[in-house]
Design brief:
The structure holds two protein chains of two kinds.
Chain A: E1 7-18, H1 27-42, E2 51-55, H2 64-70, E3 77-81, H3 87-101, E4 106-113, H4 117-125, H5 129-135, H6 144-158, H7 162-176, H8 190-195, E5 198-200, E6 203-204, E7 213-222, E8 233-242, H9 256-267, E9 276-278, H10 284-294, H11 303-311, H12 323-327, H13 334-346, E10 360-369, E11 374-384
Parallel strand pairs in A: 2-3, 2-4, 9-10
Antiparallel strand pairs in A: 1-7, 4-7, 5-6, 8-11, 10-11
Helix pairs in contact in A: 7-11, 9-10
Chain B: E1 2-6, E2 12-13, E3 28-32, E4 35-44, E5 56-63, E6 68-73, E7 82-87, E8 93-96
Parallel strand pairs in B: 6-8
Antiparallel strand pairs in B: 1-2, 1-3, 4-5, 4-7, 5-6, 7-8
Classes of the chains: A alpha/beta, B mainly beta.
């Protein structure tokens, strides 16, 4: 069964991201704010929720069930997700199937993190056993050096220069200037980008996501629920591919390449039908890799043309919130950020950055860095549903 | 430095797996991987949680045994440079060229 009939997404929210959260901020508190805002948007009461999914790096020692108790929820479906940048779509996949199967009828998915400086350092140094054993001793300070080298490989393979990655960052910053929730909204020039302090060459600070505290949430219901009457968003297709190459490749091709054909076949749509795209932008090189794998660069990919003729020109609206590169990376919420933006666009609630007549959106997730690059990739095609 | 070869199918991997990703068996033999060539190197200027600090040279090295290592170079080397590899007591793999 590869269709998602009978499932509607009825709310998508973001708790404002902050670079320096006020004293007293906690991960559980941010998740609770997201839950509350999502229920408000969907016009639901907490008593109607019977399913909960949670993605967070810093919620432990609590888990989803602890959060459910603290938030006063009684649920019959409860799930922890630990897939980082792929967590939003992974949760969506499982939640949609739970609704189709009748295990739950109203599911809230929340994701978010609050980081103190020490929390973030601990996370990146102990991300998994491989990182702790083989990368932490190198004092890499997280995955920046790995994606610096991946970017070098992409620059060689596709004849790209720093100016091309700068154009991606500038394009997203222009979208961010119209998103009041983005932490960085001031214009970014190519001169500023090129002059920025290097992090891990060729990456500069604008190629690396700003760490923030924040949370996101979405709500799914059965399509016959009253909440699905107003402004539902439907799932046309969803596919995931994890560990497709077991880290034997170069990281320039993600698992999305292996699911591209089935994704578009399931959706009965093509990349050209999409009004906007959200791709996981932990680094600019991964924006290009995912768009290419999904088919947005065509059968004979020209990434230079994709950047300058389609993304910078906004003929293809990509990461219209500003993406993580401008809006910030709130830990596991990053895996839901693009999903929330796409749903907001399809609900025609994106304000100044609204894409005209948005009907279809593609969203991809990527992440969980193992030894050299991410293990996980997934994608969903969404459609604005008809109000009843 | 060693990498790990599946006894059943010969698949060579690093880091060591629980089961072979090629055939699913769980017996491995250690294979020496003491040299390799530099495929990429990045000059690392800034690390999470640190202000300032020393520059480091982090590289991808294709070992002659097959798998790739992420290593710290003792000094900046050109792509293609052949390096010897050693394992430090803290687990760091270091690449060096005499």
């Amino acid at each position: 069964m590869n269709d998602f009939t009978g499932v509607s997404i009825v709310a998508a929210v973001e708790v404002p991201y902050t670079r320096h959260a006020p004293a007293g901020t906690s991960t559980a508190g941010l998740l609770a704010q997201a839950l509350k805002a999502a229920l408000l948007q969907a016009e639901l009461s907490a008593n109607e929720v019977d399913g909960l999914g949670v993605a967070s790096f810093t919620l432990p020692p609590d888990h989803a069930i602890d959060f459910a108790w603290r938030a006063g929820l009684r649920v019959g479906w409860c799930m922890d997700d630990c897939h980082g940048g792929a967590s939003g779509i992974n949760l969506l996949q499982h939640a949609a199937r739970a609704i189709q199967a009748g295990d739950a009828s109203v599911i809230v998915l929340v994701s978010g993190d609050h980081f103190e400086a020490a929390d973030f350092t601990s996370l990146v140094e102990n991300y998994n056993v491989t990182t702790r054993t083989h990368l932490r001793p190198l004092k890499t300070g997280g995955p920046n050096p790995l994606f610096a080298m991946l970017t070098q490989r992409q620059m060689r393979a596709s004849q790209l220069a720093r100016e091309d990655y700068g154009a991606l960052c500038i394009a997203q910053r222009e979208w961010a200037s119209m998103n009041p929730l983005a932490v960085y909204r001031e214009p970014l020039t190519l001169e500023t980008y090129l002059a920025a302090a290097p992090v891990a060459e060729p990456l500069c600070r604008y190629d690396c996501v700003p760490v923030v505290s924040g949370a996101n949430a979405i709500v799914l219901t059965s399509s016959i629920h009253r909440c699905a009457e107003r402004s539902p968003v439907r799932i046309r297709a969803l596919r995931a591919a994890y560990n497709v190459d077991h880290q034997h490749g170069d990281g320039l091709v993600t698992g999305l390449a292996s699911i591209r054909d089935s994704l578009w076949r399931d959706a009965n749509l093509q990349p050209a039908d999409m009004n906007l795209v959200s791709v996981y932008d932990d680094y600019p090189s991964m924006i290009l890799a995912q768009l290419n794998d999904l088919g947005f660069a065509g059968d004979q990919p020209d990434l230079h043309a994709l950047i300058h003729e389609r993304i910078a020109s906004r003929r293809l609206p990509v990461n219209t919130s500003g993406g993580q590169l401008s809006a910030g990376q709130a830990g596991a919420a990053a895996g839901m950020h693009g999903l929330v933006e796409a749903i907001t666009q399809l609900r025609h609630e994106a304000g100044m950055r609204q894409v005209d007549d948005a009907r279809f959106a593609a969203v991809s997730g990527y992440g969980m860095v193992q030894y050299r690059y991410g293990m996980c990739a997934n994608a969903v095609v969404l459609e604005r549903g008809a109000a009843q | 430095m060693n990498v790990f070869a599946c006894v059943a199918c010969g698949q060579v991997d690093f880091p060591r797996r629980l089961l072979c990703p090629s055939c699913g068996r769980d017996e491995f033999t250690e294979v020496a991987a003491s040299t390799g060539s530099v495929e990429e190197v990045t000059i690392l200027h800034h690390r999470a949680g640190k202000t300032g600090g020393d520059i480091a040279y982090i590289a991808t090295v294709l070992t002659h045994a097959g798998p790739r290592f992420i290593v710290r170079l003792e000094r900046l080397l050109a792509l293609g440079a052949v390096v010897s590899l050693r394992l430090e007591s803290d687990g760091a793999i270091v690449g060096f060229s005499d």
